[in-house]
Amino acid sequence: TELHTLWQNEERAAISSGKLNEIWHRRHDYWLLAGIVLHGYARWTDIQNDGAFGVINEPFKGEASKGNFLEMKNKFLARRFKLLEQALVIEEQLRRAAYLNMTQDPSHPAMALNTRFAEVECLAESHQHLSKESLAGNKPANAVLHKVLNQLEELLSDMKADVTRLPATLQHPQP
């Protein structure tokens, strides 16, 4: 997952600015997870009010004057927990796969679907600016946008065909 890279970037920013408690990083994530273990899932107010978990309040001290401060803080904590949860699930799946010496078969239809999805994602992200330019009246951008949309449509059609072939390949998965 990209969690480790995110932690490194956040920690580097916190250390270089001298604001180790004010910039959210892995230490805050640790205490957020510990608070969830103690108080329960999505019990953001209980976690924030527990003095033992005061470190998670530090990055928000500068925002306390804003009107929607508590809502903003709770939404951040929920998003951050979702990121941590997803990363932990993926890393556990990778650990199990390594333990069981499982490898990916590049010829498996699911891998073709995965490759096409990566192509769709890359194409969409690299050309997302075209819609604004096209709306602004840029004729060349409009032409390129139509070509990109046609490519996306073809990729999605290929993915749909891949998906219809998947059930037959997944009927007898290995335990």
Task: Explain what you see.
This protein has 175 residues and is an all-alpha fold. The protein folds into 2 domains: 2-100; 109-171. The chain is 70% helix and 0% strand. It is built from 7 helices and no strands. The protein has helices at 3-17, 26-39, 44-49, 69-99, 109-126, 130-135, 139-170. Helix 5 runs antiparallel to helix 7 (139-170). It is extended, with a radius of gyration of 22 Å.
What's the short version?
The protein has helices spanning 3-17, 26-39, 44-49, 69-99, 109-126, 130-135, 139-170. The chain is an all-alpha fold and 175 residues long. 8% of the residues are buried.
Structural class: mainly alpha
Taken in chain order, the helices and strands follow as HHHHHHH
User: Helical element count?
Assistant: 7
Helicity range of the residues? 55-70%
Kindly provide the radius of gyration, computed on alpha-carbon positions and rounded to a whole number of angstroms. Answer: 22 Å
**Total E-strand runs:** 0
Task: Compute the average pLDDT.
Answer: 84
Keywords:
175 residues
Topology, element by element:
Blueprint: H1 3-17, H2 26-39, H3 44-49, H4 69-99, H5 109-126, H6 130-135, H7 139-170
Helix pairs in contact: 5-7
